[in-house]
Amino acid sequence: MLPYNILVEVCVIYAALLFGVAFLAERRAKRGKLSWLRSPLVYTLSLSIYCTAWTFYGAVGYAARSGLEFLTIYLGPTLVMVGWWWVLRKLVRIGRRQRITSVADLISSRYGKSAVLGGVVTCLMVVATTPYIALQLQSVTLSFGVFARPAPEGLAMPTQSVTTIWVAIGLTVFTVLFGTRNLDANERHHGVVTAIAVEALVKLAALLAVGAFVVWGIASGPSEIMARINASPIAKVPADGSRWFALIFLSGAAFLCLPRMFQVLVVENEDERHLATASWAFPLYMALMSLFVLPIAVMGLAVLPAGSNPDLFVLTLPLSMDRNALAMLAFLGGFSSATSMVVVASIALSTMVSNHLVMPLWLGFRRGGASMSGDVRQLVLMSRRLSIAGVLALGYTYYRISGGGEALAAIGLISFVGVVQVLPAMIGGIFWRGATRIGAAAGILSGFAIWLYTLFLPSFGPDVLLSAALLDHGPGGFGWLTPQALFGLGNLDPVVHAVMWSLVMNTTAFLVGSLASFPRPLERLQGAQIVNVFDYSTGRHGWARSFVEAEDLLVMSQRIFGPREAQALFLTEALAQGKDGYLPDPTPEFIDRLERELAGSVGAATAHAMIGQIVTGASVSVQDLMAVADETAQIMEYSSQLETKSQELARTARQLRDANQKLTALSVQKDAFLSQISHELRTPMTSIRAFSEILMSEADLTDADKDRYSRIIHDEALRLTRLLDALLDLNVLEHGQATFRPETVVLRDMIDRAILSTSGVRSAQPITIVRNDASEAVILHTDVDRLSQVFINLIANARKYCVAPQARLTIRVVRVDGQTAIDFIDNGAGIPIVSQGLIFEKFSRLSDQSAAGGAGLGLAICREIMVRLGGSVSYLPGQGGAAFRVLLPQTAIIRAA
Amino acid sequence: MGQHVLLIEDEPNIIEAIRFFLSRDGWKVSCHSDGASAVAEVARVSPDVVVLDVMLPNRSGFDILKDLRADPATQATPVLMLTAKGQTKDRERAAHLGTSAFMTKPFSNADLREMLRSLIQA
Question: Could you give the C-alpha distances from B3 to A243, A623, A690, B10, B119, in angstroms and in order?
């Protein structure tokens, strides 16, 4: 026995020490020096919060009451750890990928970030953890009661309930200081985890020390202990198969679902590989923790007076032998067990309460009000602190109401059964994409209700919350609804009964609800991401060579790229690798490259998933994958067809627009042409009509007048005829209906004849024509009449329009770029630059010189003729007067000059 | 009668025909063939009536009409427009610009004579 005040001082000093450890670790973490903080050993030791005061003190009591059954509490987690590859690894991966902060967060995230589901799970967890917190308070209070004696001076020994309040307040302060020092995005608490690791060592050391003392100090050694065990009533407790099975399952499930375990297993996990170490180290830790449970129980029963509480043997055995130091170590071990559990559990619960109850409600109230400001951080911290206080207050309340009378182990099991109600939704959620929000909610709520009714409420005892009559005979006398004997299954152990019914109902509701409802899009998305977390999170680089076949990759690539491109890609790679065939080795570099190429076609995520499927050979079969690839290819094909179609449409529209523009232009041209024709025809007709009317109606005309007017009428009639001839000629030429009759001729003769036939042209003055006979000795084979028509036109124009003191037309034959051309150059005024582009158009006569008898179609006809003959006629600027060049068709030249 | 008509026209045969039969009727006929100086010519000779062709060298009859109507000295002078194009479009344009009358070539001498007489009497 120790003075009460010394015990309090020891507790405070121990807590300060832990705080110092946590503080240092936190500072190291902040500086980025995580080296040993990230060791798998610290991770493993942090898992020891599974072993609470219940395990530390209660396992011995459990063994004393029920024999070896206490081992089930260790066997469940051991199975989970040994089989970590199956569930734990996936949970940890999901937690890291999705930045999961708690069980409630996991469930909420998986089912489409459902706020309601998060709130429900939080409530369940708070209610289910409350007995557990009460358990810790009870154990610490009990140990105080056992250990302390009233201090001789000062400090009066308080009553048990006051002690409990102080313990609760102390733990609250401790947790607030530890757990809410800062807000980490990942909810990681390096300081807390390190302090817990230290506490884990303290409890192990304490239990081993007490055990060793019992075996070698009280008894004479292992052999005596074995003999005593065999002789003790413990050995005679029959093993209840259903209870063993239920308890192993229950503890294993609780190991995954407990908020504090999820916190250390998943949230605080630094590195997935730590799991591999923990998978053997943590079972080893638990084995050590349970090593001396039976010896202590047996010796306690043997040595201590009858009626001693076996839950406190760990403490009372050393005390009865006056080993105060050892007892103090045992007390600190129990204290460590309780505090570490309470700290982590309250942190985990406060995260849930704050994230899934307080914040959604607060945001709901604030909606439409003030915008989010910088002090949200403070708000979150405050809500965390209040949540921690609230969780401990609830624990204390439960402790007071339940009267603290239950055995430690029984309280622990009640918690376990409550907590595992999230198991179907959790396991279903990470392995089954068909699981839905409705199913999860239905399962959790029905399991929760059954747990409350069959285990939690009855745990307060008759007439506290449920009447004794109801507990014995069911509500309203319906026997089949009796809380601990549903449907008449009254001969089962209450825990087994509750586990069975709650989980059966829970799982059934979960499955039925999931199958009967359709997931929302976000649920589908989250479901896919979480269920297929390994496909999505495989490292960007580092495709292992594994067992992938290059051929599989090629088959898939062909469906995306098309056979030709895919084969070209593989062939290039094979050549680069120096291989003979067309298939390269699937080196990581090549797979990386292939992924990049695929990403260009189907997007990075799909490409990664596709490669991942083939390379890691994961859940989806190659056939399924090919179906996806086909689908994608079809979509791409379809969209490329659409693109082609729309390009065609655009092209057609452009053509239509062009055609329309052409038609509009043609229509304008046609109008202008008709207008011109009208003018050209009406003008001579006007003269003809006017003079014929004069001749008809005017009396006493002189003969000279009559003569003159008749001649005018005659000339104008000729002019009309010429115009019509020219129009018809042009029409024939333009429509390609003209037939050409090539003959062989000497150029000189053609020019001679052209000059001769223009000699009758009316002109203001005679014109001198300058020629070079030698150069005209070119023999042609062409349509002589048509070509002559061009020459005649050009010479006649010179005769008509060349106005100069000594009018002169030079006709010369030149070689232009190896072609033969004939230039017609006069020394007149020439053609203004602005008009040079127009003169070959119809009716483009520069001024009305109808006296010259032209219709304005001559040059247009010349151009048409030359185009038809295969040559050209163009204006030759800068020659002093009007100058035209006729380029003879190359094919027509038989012999050049 | 001694009325004065100014004929703005570039086709020599048409000028000759109109001059011949109007002179015989006692008209005083002046002629002008250039579009660019036509407005100035109208102002200079201030005829009783103007016969104006549309297709003239250097300037179109429409532009000339526009100027005539804008100038107070000539805006009251009756103008008979002659055109060889004869499209409705041209007729409308001439009416819009304020021509007094419009005839399409070829015309009957009697009609022209009648038209000019009515323009002067109006």
Answer: 141, 108, 21, 22, 11
- CB distance A697–B110 less than 8 Å? yes
Contact B109 A679 (CB under 8 A): no
Chain B residue at shortest CA distance from A847: B57
Q: Compute how many other C-beta atoms are within 10 angstroms of the C-beta atom of residue A191.
A: 27
User: What would the pLDDT profile of A233-271 be if each residue is shown by its tens digit?
Assistant: 777 777 777 888 888 998 899 888 899 898 888 888 878
Q: Which fold has domain A2-356+378-436+518-522?
A: Sodium/glucose cotransporter (1.20.1730)
CA distance linking residue A168 with residue A173, whole number of Å: 9
Residue A877 neighbours by CB distance under 10 Å: 10
B11 part of contact set with chain A, CB < 8 Å: yes
What is the predicted ipTM? 0.92
Determine the Cα–Cα distance for residues A335 and A143; give it in Å rounded to an integer: 9
The tens digit of pLDDT for each residue in A683-717 reads 889 999 999 999 998 888 889 989 999 999 998 89
Q: Does B85 touch chain A (CB under 8 A)?
A: yes
Q: Which domain holds residue B11?
A: 4-121
**What is the Cα–Cα distance from A259 to A254, expressed in whole angstroms?**
9
Domain count across chain B: 1
Give dist(CA A142, CA A164) in Å, integer.
9
Count of beta carbons in the 10 Å neighbourhood of residue A307 = 5
Architecture of domain A740-895: 2-Layer Sandwich (3.30)
Q: Kindly state whether B36 is in contact with chain A, defined as any CB-CB distance less than 8 angstroms.
A: no
Contact A407, A493 (CB under 8 A): no
Query: Minimal Cα–Cα distance from A668 to chain B, Å?
Result: 14
